[in-house]
């Protein structure tokens, strides 16, 4: 087991794999999913499903008990101002969907990190890792080097401005391939015509940036394909 936390491993360009777990999964169900492979984190979603805060607290507690970091996709792009409140419920990572504007990214960074890196408010007994780090500055410093923030690109506009979105504090730029396909199909003569072309373009634009690409490949059989392209973080469906 690596001594580095997940944020550090992302930044170092390690090849990492996350697995989708239903928000309402029991601890036994979560454990059954993560035992099927060598997963590095679990991720769950409120963008396309029902969500209440108590369920998220329970989900994050299960993940913490099982020794695996949790990522949560918030319900809407415009809810980035609520990131601090969501983090107080226990996730280690946050994913913001359908981002196109730098202002959204800046708002997400602001509410994700504590001062003086950001503007997140202090509080919350369910925060990840708060036990034993109750002192304000101690926890803030620890969190700012532990929590990981992902910004989801789902349009050609986002893909072609990827360097502008990869500001300090953004650990991953993630993909929603299906919504991106809708956008590609809506353009009569798009410069980039496939999701894979978009991935390659983004990787080329990012170069040696500390911000990495996290791709929803869904299928474990596609690991080599995307790792060979230069993607370093994959998000998959559970193995059967």
Strand content: 15-25%
Could you tell me the number of beta strands?
8
What structural class do you assign from the helix and strand content? alpha/beta
Shape: globular
CATH class: Alpha Beta
Give structural notes.
It is a single chain. The protein is α/β, with parallel strands linked by helices and 240 residues long. Strand 1 (16-20), helix 2 (27-34) and strand 2 (41-45) form a beta-alpha-beta unit. It has a single domain (17-236), classed as Alpha-Beta Barrel (TIM Barrel). It has helices at 6-11, 27-34, 53-65, 83-87, 102-112, 136-144, 156-160, 162-165, 177-186, 195-206, 223-229; strands spanning 16-20, 41-45, 70-73, 93-96, 148-153, 172-175, 212-218, 233-236. 38% of the residues lie in helices and 16% in strands. It is built from eleven helices and eight strands. An eight-stranded parallel beta barrel has the order 1-2-3-4-5-6-7-8, surrounded by four helices.
What is the gist of this entry?
By secondary structure, the chain is of the alpha/beta class.
């Amino acid at each position: 087991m690596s001594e580095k936390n997940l944020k550090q491993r992302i930044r170092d360009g390690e090849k990492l794999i996350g697995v989708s777990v239903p928000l309402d999964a029991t601890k036994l169900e979560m454990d059954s999913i993560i035992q099927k492979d060598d997963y590095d984190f679990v991720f769950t979603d409120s963008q396309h499903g029902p969500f209440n805060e108590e369920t998220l607290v329970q989900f994050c507690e299960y993940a913490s008990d099982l020794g695996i970091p949790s990522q949560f996709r918030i319900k809407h792009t415009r809810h980035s101002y609520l990131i601090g409140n969501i983090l107080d419920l226990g996730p280690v990572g946050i994913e913001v969907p359908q981002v196109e504007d730098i202002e959204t990214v800046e708002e997400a960074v602001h509410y994700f990190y504590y001062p003086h890196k950001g503007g997140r408010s202090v509080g919350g007994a369910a925060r990840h890792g708060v036990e034993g780090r109750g002192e304000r500055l101690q926890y803030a410093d620890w969190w700012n080097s532990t929590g990981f923030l992902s910004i989801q690109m789902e349009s050609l506009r986002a893909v072609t401005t990827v360097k502008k979105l990869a500001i300090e504090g953004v650990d991953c730029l993630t993909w929603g391939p299906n919504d991106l396909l809708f956008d590609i199909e809506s353009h009569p003569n798009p410069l980039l015509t496939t999701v894979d072309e978009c991935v390659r373009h983004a990787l080329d634009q990012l170069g040696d940036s500390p911000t990495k690409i996290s791709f929803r490949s869904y299928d474990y059989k596609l690991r080599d394909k995307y790792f060979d392209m230069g993607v370093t973080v994959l998000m998959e469906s559970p193995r059967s």
